[in-house]
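Worked problem 6 (solution included).
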Amino acid sequence: MKNIGIDIVENVRFDSFIDNPRKYSRILSDKEKDLFARITNKSRKREFLAGRFAAKEAVIKALAHSGYSFKYTRISVLNAPDGSPYVELEDCPAVKILLSLSHGKENTVAVAVLVDKDE
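Solution. The predicted structure is:
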């Protein structure tokens, strides 16, 4: 199965999440919360939250009709040593998703492509 998903968000939408663990805990996985806690710059925190949200929305769209149970906290958007983003799905290791994120001053966009595991 192959599919694609895309999402764009306004970064300012996440300003109220930065200092509110109850809000950002609805979006971030435990691994992502650890990374978020290490960020000290508020604009970088907003960018991190916007990127994770857009990426997860794109992943959910790419996984449409797959039978995967969609919950933001079951999806982790992490970074490889070279900085490139990748996706980990809780309880779904057989799925391979390619991910691209781009941040602008006002918006963040994410594209997720579901590909065959052996590609």
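Discussion: The mean pLDDT is 91.
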